[in-house]
Write a structure and sequence with these properties.
The complex is a heterodimer of chains A (320) and B (477). Chain A is built from 9 helices and 16 strands. Chain A has 320 residues and is of the alpha/beta class. In chain A, helix 2 links the parallel strand 4 and strand 5. Chain A is elongated. The model of chain A has no long low-confidence stretch (mean pLDDT 91). In chain B, 44% of the residues are buried. Classes of the chains: A alpha/beta (320), B mainly alpha (477). At the A-B interface, helix 6 and helix 9 of A face helix 18, helix 20, helix 22, helix 24 and helix 26 of B. The complex binds flavin-adenine dinucleotide.
Chain lengths: 320, 477
């Protein structure tokens, strides 16, 4: 019997949707009927948050009670390490998120476990666990196995697995870890992003505008179009720098990585390395640019050499 | 921000001549500075620079692909005669016409022809040569789309391959007028629509198109400034929403039709009406009550919207409508004051970018905690220098960049940012005309290669300017 441990992520009293994707990923690692998926939730409110984790495919929810209401990397590290020792999982799945990156490496290194980040595929090869992740700037897929390690800690890319949809009533165990202490203490919670604006890392359909937009007045035309097709309007850096869209809508190296995005329509964006850092992983990229030599076409699945205003007008006309 | 390096006076003077600048670079051995000054070096210096630049295969390949590699270095690379390199050089957007020509004469690689057909700098005779001789449909399609293709190229393609590239040719800015007519007559509805959308479409074609019942054709026609007047009335009742919406944007729309379209059942038509500059006050008031937030938003942005309408829209439940009011160039200051304390930061940010905000209001916005608002204050040319001086030390790098982007921020404000921890800001300042070369000279040993490249590129360009220009420039700084 194998055990797979999933660690739920939560913020401000809400379990983050990526947790549901991890449950699906964990199910793919089950090879025998008696393999077990454990779902741990860590924090002061772990027990009450467990009510948001009633999903099929989970055999047991472990509410790890700590004395911190907010995420605290040291507490998470200690709690997860203790769970690995007591429950002996073959794999520990964490979201590939800022929170996880704050402690996952420490767990793996201190425990001497296998480790892979940003994993988007899981499989067995001759009985050995194999994780697939991007390499060389996502240009190649790298398969990682973990010979000699009884357990592998992995951070899983958001959007790579379908979220579980069926509810169930898994067993709940409370694991009191309030004796754990951390060296730091959260003082203030600062919401990332533009004052309650949409979190672009969680949306699936993005239309993004770049300098090809020309002037601010045109931004509104594209916002209207995005609205009409239910896309979230994002942008390249010059647009955010000009104050035409909030900073929270900037995609790229100094902006955000749109990890959950499945369809990205780039309008008048040249495709600088810095912009592509935030979106090149998206499976379907559509690029519209008047310059057939624009770099964005090297990663686009569908490229349209055309004026973005013509396309925008045409789409609006179709939608009208 | 905590400036990491102590602001110190540069120990040495900026080399004033091209030769002295290149000599400095040769002595320092800095690879990226060498790329930047290659174009101003004399023959002997250039040879030494090339020894440095092309010393390793890895560097050569990197340079052929690096987006900032200048045309002169690409030209030197192209003479290294290496096949995979040739493709990289031809693909590079900075490669100049003579280098492209040289590559074409040196190679019979068909992939190069395809790249040349697309390149904006390919010389006209070469494009014509490709149009005359090539048979590869992908190459020729690229050629028909190349914005640098001249009328003869397009004419030739239309002759050699009738109908094959007609859509591309009809959309090309340089297509000759007589060819447009040919394309229209032999084209399908898509080609015809492209012809009608062309700004040089002959009037005779417009009259012909007016008889069409094809929606696609009428959509193209309705946008044309020379739309026959008789058609305006007919089209205002056309069943296609897009046609009526396009009609509603026309400056020559009679008043009675504007009033009718303001009541149109389609949101897209009323949205177009809301943008009009000639709306009667009663129509504006009616549109301000429209159930579609986008109608109200477009009205909020309309510079002709009256005070009362804007007052109403400033209270809208949709933040985007309130933001539209805050972005309206004629938004009264009293409304801006109200919107400056909106609970949504994106609305307050719109106020921060307004040119007609009072200094008192700007000072209060400068105390905001939202980065979008502070960036607006930082980038606003009307922000008081004292405020900018404070924002230079903001923790938020977007805010500091706002100051760098502010057209009114003078050298005394920008100077501390030469030591900004974010390298991009130093890159931007290295090529800012507002700082003196002497001040920028401290960046010559910057830990980031891109900053050094930007500095030496700036200095190299300056070395090519006439002396009088440089003197004026330094005085101004
Ligand atoms: C340290 C650092 C961090 C950075 N971080 C980011 C980041 O996070 N995100 C980011 O985006 N950038 C970032 N940048 C900036 C980046 O280098 C580019 O400058 C930026 O991405 C370019 O934006 P763009 O593609 O909109 O503009 P451009 O490169 O100017 O491209 C505009 C494109 O629009 C096309 N175009 C013009 N008119 C039309 C039209 N009518 N129809 C169709 N196409 C048209 C042009 O052909 C061109 O390809 C960063 C830079 C640095 C140095």
């Amino acid at each position: 019997m194998n055990t797979i441990l999933v660690v739920a992520e939560h913020r401000r009293g809400e379990v983050r949707p990526v947790t549901l994707e991890l449950i699906t990923a964990a199910q793919q690692l089950k090879t025998a009927a008696d393999d077990r998926v454990l779902l741990a939730i860590i924090g002061q409110e772990a027990e009450s948050l467990a009510s948001q984790l009633q999903w099929a495919g989970v055999d047991e929810i472990i509410a790890c009670k700590t004395n911190s209401a907010e995420f605290e990397p040291e507490l998470a590290e200690q709690a997860v390490s203790a769970l690995i020792v007591s429950r002996k999982p073959i794999a520990v799945l964490l979201p590939h998120s800022v929170d996880s990156l704050g402690y996952a490496t420490a767990v793996a290194v201190k425990g001497g476990y296998g480790y892979a980040t940003d994993v988007f595929k899981l499989a067995y090869d001759g009985g050995a666990l194999v994780a697939t992740r991007g390499g060389y700037n996502q240009k190649v897929n790298v398969e990682v196995d973990f010979p000699g390690h009884a357990c592998a800690v992995m951070t899983i890319r958001g959007g790579a697995f379908k979220p579980v949809e069926t509810v169930a009533a898994p067993l709940l165990t409370v694991d009191d870890r309030s004796e754990l202490s951390a060296r730091s203490r959260p003082l203030e919670f600062i919401e990332q992003g533009g004052g309650g604006d949409i979190d672009i890392t969680t949306v699936e359909f993005i239309m993004s505008i770049g300098r090809g937009i020309g002037e601010e007045a045109n931004v509104e035309d594209f916002r209207e179009l995005a609205d009409n097709i239910d896309a979230t309007l994002c942008c390249s850096r010059p647009i955010a720098d000009a104050g035409w869209l909030p900073k929270s809508r900037q995609v790229g190296q100094s902006g955000k990585v749109v990890s959950a995005c499945k369809l990205y329509v780039a309008m008048g964006i040249s495709g600088s390395i810095q912009h592509m850092a935030g979106m090149k992983h998206v499976s379907t990229i559509v690029a519209v640019n008047t310059d057939p030599g624009a770099s964005i076409f090297t990663i686009a699945k569908y490229g349209i050499v055309a004026d973005i205003f013509e396309i925008q007008e045409e789409l609006q006309a179709q939608l009208a | 921000m905590s400036p990491q390096r102590f602001l110190s006076k540069s120990e040495s003077q900026v080399p004033m001549t091209a030769q002295a600048l290149v000599a400095h670079v040769l002595e320092s051995g800095d690879f990226y500075a060498a790329v930047a000054v290659h174009g101003i070096a004399d023959a002997r210096q250039r040879q030494r620079l090339e020894e440095r630049l092309f010393g390793s295969r890895r560097d050569v390949l990197m340079l052929a692909r690096w987006e900032h590699t200048p045309a002169n270095v690409l030209d030197a690379l192209s003479r290294l005669e290496h096949m995979p390199l040739a493709r990289r050089v031809v693909k590079h957007r900075n490669t100049g016409g003579s280098t492209l020509k040289h590559q074409f004469s040196q190679s019979d690689d068909p992939a190069l022809t395809g790249l040349l057909a697309l390149h904006a700098n390919t010389p006209a005779p070469l494009l014509l040569q490709i149009a005359m001789g090539d048979h590869d449909q992908v190459v020729l399609k690229g050629l028909a789309r190349n914005p640098s293709a001249q009328p003869e190229v397009l004419r030739l393609l239309a002759q050699r391959f009738p109908r094959r590239f007609d859509k591309e040719i009809a959309s090309h800015a340089a297509v000759p007028v007589d060819l447009l007519a040919t394309l229209y007559h032999r084209g399908d509805k898509f080609v015809r629509a492209a012809v009608l959308a062309h700004k040089h479409v002959p009037e005779a074609l417009l009259l012909q198109a007016a008889k069409s019942t094809e929606t696609l054709i009428l959509r193209a026609l309705v946008k044309h400034p020379q739309l026959p007047a008789a058609l305006v009335d007919t089209l205002s009742q056309h069943k296609d929403n897009a046609i009526r919406a396009a009609l509603a944007t026309r400056a020559d729309l009679p008043v009675h039709l504007t009033a009718r379209l303001a009541l149109d059942e389609s949101d897209s038509v009323r949205r177009a009406v809301a943008c009009r500059a000639d709306l009667a006050p009663t129509l504006m008031q009616m549109l301000a009550e429209d159930h579609d937030p986008w109608v109200r938003q477009w009205l909020g942005r309309n510079p002709m919207a009256g005070k009362h309408v804007l007052q109403k829209l400033a209270l809208d439940i949709h933040e985007d409508v309130r933001r539209a009011v805050a972005r309206n160039p004629n938004c009264p200051i009293t409304l801006l004051e109200k919107l400056a304390s909106d609970h949504r930061s994106w609305v307050r940010a719109a106020v921060a970018y307004q040119p007609n905000v009072t200094s008192c209001l700007m000072a209060s916005l400068a105390r905001d905690s939202a980065v979008d608002v502070l960036s607006g204050v930082a980038a606003n040319p009307h922000t008081a220098p004292a405020l900018l001086k404070r924002l230079v030390f903001s923790e938020e790098l977007d805010v500091r960049r706002g100051v760098i982007l502010n057209p009114a921020a003078g050298p005394e404000i920008l100077l501390p940012l030469l030591q900004d921890p974010y390298y991009l800001h130093r890159v931007m300042l290295a090529s800012s005309p507002k700082l003196s070369d002497q001040d920028k000279w401290q960046l010559r040993d910057d830990p980031d290669a891109r900053v050094r490249f930007a500095l030496f590129q700036w200095l190299a360009a300056r070395a090519l300017r006439p002396v009088a220009d440089r003197y004026f420039y330094r005085r101004k700084a």
